[in-house]
Amino acid sequence: MAAHNLSGSGSPMKPSFAQLRRFLYAAVCSLALSGGAFAQDPGAAELLAAQQAVERADRADADQYAPDMMAMARQQLEQAQRAAADRRERKQAPMLALRAAADADLARAQSEEAVAQTQLAQRQAEVRQLQRQLATGEGR
């Protein structure tokens, strides 16, 4: 059974505050630079939010733990992008993007839940093993 490294070395479980700060800074800069696009295209904000939601779900391994929901989010994001590029379909782009973002967020949440459930099961197995060792006097 592999022990998780809580010291920060090895494979990190969560991003550091510095990494989060860099990500937020990059996001704010990209939003500021694309501000003109938002004024011209009201669906641009929803498309950006959907793209970011899909990226977050991807980083949370949603392809592994919620593949159907992740596929649906990607499909809706592609539809939203196509609609945004088509003058006749442009009005549908924001709604499609919102659906994509919601599905991606759900996929991420399902993935995080699956990871937490797996970790819980591992901890419970470790506790049972330790209880057996205590009861039988092993390890003394």
The coarse overall form would be: elongated
Number of helices: 6
Low-pLDDT runs of 5+ residues are 1-12
Helix content: over 70%
Strand content: under 5%
Number of strands: 0
Main sheet: strands, sense, barrel: none
SSE topology string:
HHHHHH
Helix- and strand-based class?
Answer: mainly alpha
Mean pLDDT: 82
N/C terminus separation: 21 Å
Oligomer: single chain
Structural commentary:
The protein contains 6 helices and no strands. The chain has helices at residues 17-33, 35-40, 44-59, 62-65, 67-85, 93-136. The two termini are 21 Å apart.
Quick structural overview:
This protein is mainly α. Helix content is 76%, strand content 0%.
Secondary structure elements and pairings:
Elements lengths: L16 H17 L1 H6 L3 H16 L2 H4 L1 H19 L7 H44 L4
Question: Which structural traits does this protein have?
Answer:
140 residues; mainly alpha
